[in-house]
Amino acid sequence: MSVIKHDFGKKNRLIARRFRKLLRLDALHEANVKANPLPYLERASHRIDQLETILFEAIVATKPSAIETPSGETVEISREEYERLLKCRDIVEKGFKKMGPREEFL
Predict the structure, then answer these.
(1) Nearest CA among 50, 9, 49, 25 for reference residue 33
(2) Cα of 100 vs its chain's centroid, Å
(3) Closest CA to 15 of 33, 36, 27, 32
(4) CA-to-CA distance for 23 and 44, rounded, in angstroms?
(5) What is the pLDDT confidence band of residue 106, given thresholds at 50, 70 and 90?
(6) CA 18, CA 72: separation in Å to the nearest integer?
(7) How far is CA 81 from the centre of its chain?
(8) In this structure, how many other beta carbons lie within 10 angstroms of the beta carbon of residue 21?
């Protein structure tokens, strides 16, 4: 006697549930995600574009501008705060490099 393995669509339900959670939608949208995924894919694409723009703006903010002149004002921060800022900058730069260049950012 053998066992017939069948997941009864469990894999597809888990994929739809994960997608719904990534988009921060409630459980009522799960059936709609499976039936008509296009609007949800467009929403995800828009969200990705927003995140890429934020990442790019963070990269630009870490670089000194050509017209920026030093004000002579001194700001003191702790060594721990400075190290955290450097770590954040490194994380953002690594993430931007992983993304690869985009035409509108160049």
Answers:
(1) 25
(2) 14
(3) 33
(4) 7
(5) very low
(6) 51
(7) 24
(8) 12
Contact 40, 33 (CB under 8 A): yes
Of 96, 100, 104, 84, which is closest to residue 59 (Cα–Cα)?
A: 96
Q: Which amino acid is at 30?
A: E
Maximum CA extent, the chain? 84
Rounding to the nearest 10 degrees, give the CA dihedral for residues 41, 44, 46, 52.
Answer: -140
Query: Could you read off the pLDDT of 51-100 as tens digits, one per residue?
Result: 888 888 888 887 777 776 677 788 888 999 999 988 988 888 888 787 76
Q: How far apart are CA 103 and CA 80, in angstroms?
A: 37
The token duo for 37 is 């995924």
The DSSP 8-state label assigned to residue 103 in this structure reads G
Sign for the pseudo-dihedral over CA of 44, 45, 50, 51? positive
Q: Angle, nearest 10°, between helix axes 79-99 and 38-62?
A: 130
What's at 106, amino acid-wise?
A: L
